[in-house]
Amino acid sequence: MPDRNGASSGSGDSARIVEDIRERGEEAVREWALRLDNCEPRSAESDGEIPREALLALADAVRRWHESQRPADIRLELSSGVELERRWVPLDSVGIYVPRRLVSTLVMCAVPAQVAGVREIVIATPPEGSGAVAAAAGLLGLSDVWALGGPQAIGWLAYVRRVAKIVGPGSARVNEAKLLVSRDVAIDLPAGPSEVVVLASSGADRRAAGAVMRDERDGDERGEQDGQEVPRRARGQVI
């Protein structure tokens, strides 16, 4: 059941959400989004300041690296009229889950898909901070960005949008949802928790450090707690 912060708790909730969406489709997505995100699924609108030059520089580096790895097609004529060919064909569609405001994740997942020639790239990200992700997506030439987070976003990508593959990290519940839908749609891998250290001086804003840690954990209950407690525990310590 959702807790007072609107978060789903317990390992069974991801399974219940995913199965409900698989059976009832878009209506189930809407109900879970209202229950857990406190808003209906919606197209994310670009909002917020994005470090344009830094993002484009990162995208260029990622693009050049992946272009260098793209395998070449092979065609060989064994004898007259007999040819063998191996071609690398892109997926038709990819769904990208972007944790709250983590535009670097968007770049690292979307640009390789663009290099591969994926025709349809769908992005889901939690409503809070979705404007920044939409703004970053726009700089990459992408517009199919949805303000929808958590396991319900994974279920939506798998059973409503029916993408060919789902990629991107997330909280423990998001990872569990990805594993559950992997029987029907390809996934990249169940990403582990982020290992983040925030090194701050005595005059730093501990709330900002906590916000970084919370965003890395995508609102996971443990991450919410860590984001509040770690700065207090680390006070006066040097790492």
How many domains? The number is 2
Spatial arrangement of strands, main beta sheet: 1-6-5-4-7-8
Measured on Cα atoms, how large is the radius of gyration? 20 Å
CATH class of the largest domain: Alpha Beta
**CATH homologous superfamily grouping of the largest domain:** Nitrogenase molybdenum iron protein domain
The low-pLDDT segments are: 1-11, 218-239
Approximate strand percentage: 5-15%
Structure description:
- The protein has 239 residues and is α/β, with parallel strands linked by helices.
- The protein folds into 2 domains: 11-43 and 90-192, 3-Layer(aba) Sandwich (Rossmann fold), CATH 3.40.50; 193-239, no CATH class.
- 47% of the residues lie in helices and 13% in strands.
- The strands form 2 sheets. It has a 6-stranded mixed beta sheet, sandwiched between helices.
- β2 and β3 (82-86) form a beta hairpin.
- 37% of the residues are buried.
Brief rundown of the structure:
The chain is of the alpha/beta class and 239 residues long.
Topology:
Blueprint: H1 11-24, H2 26-36, E1 42-43, H3 52-69, E2 74-79, E3 82-86, E4 93-97, H4 103-116, E5 120-125, H5 130-139, E6 145-147, H6 150-159, E7 165-167, H7 172-181, E8 186-187, H8 206-216, H9 221-234
Parallel strand pairs: 4-5, 4-7, 5-6, 7-8
Antiparallel strand pairs: 1-6, 2-3
Feature tags:
239 residues; alpha/beta; Rossmann fold; 2 domains; six-stranded mixed beta sheet; 9 helices; disordered C terminus
